[in-house]
Amino acid sequence: ELGVRISRSELLRSNILISDLSLDNGKVYFYTPADGEMNLQQVISRLSNPDKESSGSTRLLFRNISITNTRFKFQNEFADTVTTPGVNFGNMVFDDVNIKSRRLLINGASIDMDIRQASLRDISGFELQSLEAAKFTLDDGYIGLDDARIITPDSDVNLTTFRMAADSWGDMGDFMNKVRLQAKVTKSTLNTHTLGYFVPQFANGSGIDLTGLEIEFGGTINDFTADIKNLVSGQTVVVADAWARNITDMPRASFDVNLSRLDTNGNDLRTLANGFLADSLAANTSAMLSRIGNISAQATARGTMGAFTANVAVNTDAGNVLV
Asked: Which of 60, 77, 225, 300 sits CB 3.0–4.6 Å from 106 for a disulfide?
């Protein structure tokens, strides 16, 4: 069911303005062929001038939007349509979409809007219980959020800034290497299970809660810089800044880490290791960590996994180490 009220249609500047849009139980299909022009833009162009094939210059502005119980599909030509364990950016299918917005601008393949409230469920299983954002931008290979709050069943994340960009939606499929991220996270809880829908390496078990999260991140997952101002998990507190390269190929991986603060204990380290590593810790290593007790550390390290330099100061219940 679709309802609209056209308060003004201004075609002199290739603008179409529509107020009070409501869509209930709808199905919306956005398709981008190899030439890069989204099907929606072709429709908008014909609305402004039916005799023109397509112009790409017409802007469509909505005010006061209400969308309920609707399915949205975003598909790229040549995209793999097989359902994957994580979000497939070439074939995104969202069910139970509910959106409230005061303003939505469609300009070519770009969608720009504020989000008062939104929720949806992706076919991968990822569930967005609530999204609020002062600004949301969607373009070819680009997703941007400003002053946003994201709530999932196990995470509550506040984003001052979030940018996710690739050269095209097709490149989004190589999330580890071709998707560039910029994020500033404040006062947040992030469960690694949520992260696993985007980074499969973090999809182990029920996930680990990272709380009190204050972090700035830039780059790809495989080649990044990070400034961790605060991270808490269990009784563990981490403050650090780092850059890393080729982390998915550990023999070739390189890093530069400045660990300003690590307060933890053996049991927490065991839990964190089992949550982040592909294979669980060996039984003897796990037992050793359980006996260590409390740990406090500061460290710097630079190099590769095969050859690195480090300065480490560790205080534990079992003894102290200075390297």
From this structure: 60
Alpha helices in 171-265 (DSSP H): 175-178, 192-195
Report the distance separating Cα 218 and Cα 178, nearest Å. Answer: 13
**Whole-angstrom distance, CA of residue 219 vs CA of residue 180:** 5
pLDDT in tens, the chain (323 residues): 655 555 555 544 556 778 888 999 999 887 766 665 666 655 555 555 555 554 445 678 888 999 999 998 877 765 566 656 778 777 788 999 999 999 999 887 788 999 999 999 999 899 999 999 999 998 878 999 999 999 999 999 999 999 999 887 767 767 788 899 999 999 999 998 898 888 777 776 668 899 999 999 999 988 999 999 999 999 999 999 999 998 777 778 899 999 999 999 988 888 887 777 666 677 787 777 777 789 999 999 999 877 889 999 999 887 788 87
- Between the alpha carbon of residue 231 and those of residues 39, 161, 209, 235, 264, the distances in Å are 43, 18, 10, 10, 12
Show the beta-strand stretches assigned E in the chain: 2-8, 15-24, 27-32, 59-76, 91-107, 110-122, 127-139, 142-152, 155-165, 180-191, 209-220, 223-233, 236-245, 254-265, 294-304, 308-316, 319-322
Match 């509910």 to its residue by tokens.
98
**Structure token digits, residue 36:** 């890069």
Kindly report the pTM of this predicted structure.
0.81
Q: Which of 77, 109, 111, 108 is nearest to 91 (CA)?
A: 77
Please tell me what DSSP assigns to residue 281: P
Q: How far apart are CA 107 and CA 24, in angstroms?
A: 24
Short-list 316, 307, 311, CA closest to 259: 311
